[in-house]
Amino acid sequence: MSIRPLIALLAACCLAACTQFPELDRTISPEMAASDYPALVPLEPVLAQATAGRVDAQATQAQLEARVARLRSRAARMRGSILSGRERQRLAEGLQ
Q1: Degrees (nearest 5) of the Cα angle 25, 28, 34?
Q2: Structural domain boundaries of the chain?
Q3: Which tens digits make up the pLDDT trace of 50-86?
Q4: Could you tell me if 6 and 13 are in contact, meaning their C-beta atoms sit under 8 angstroms apart?
Q5: pTM here?
Q6: How confident is the model at residue 1 (pLDDT cuts 50, 70, 90)?
Q7: Please, what is the Cα angle at 77 between 76 and 82, to 5 degrees?
Q8: How far, in Å, are 5, 58, 63, 76 from residue 79 at the CA level?
């Protein structure tokens, strides 16, 4: 194993360590500093609300099966001939 990549990585880490640390003191506005802490709420209602929106597996399965049936029906209709017998005959006569 070559030592050059290790030296390059060590140099990059040393250079990154020499950067100026950003000032975070002025990032909070005076209004935010003077405001009250947010009110704490009980966790049970939040969890109940989160579990109420769960996906119903049986309903989802039924919806997917219905969609599959519609798509298969549509694909079967698209496999059919676009031209009628008369149109096909007329086209064949025009090509001769």
Answers
A1: 115
A2: 3-94
A3: 877 777 888 899 999 999 999 999 999 888 778 788 8
A4: no
A5: 0.36
A6: low
A7: 125
A8: 60, 32, 24, 5
CA distances from 10 to 6, 40, 73, 82, 90 (A): 6, 46, 64, 70, 80
pLDDT at site 57: 84
Q: Which residue has the tokens 């064949």?
A: 92
Dump the DSSP string for 14-83.
HHHHTSPPPP-GGGS-HHHHHSPPPPP--HHHHHHHHHHT---HHHHHHHHHHHHHHHHHHHHHHHS-SS
Could you tell me the two tokens for 17?
């360590």
pLDDT for res 71: 97
Q: Which residue type sits at 68? A: V
Token pair 């005076």 is found at 30
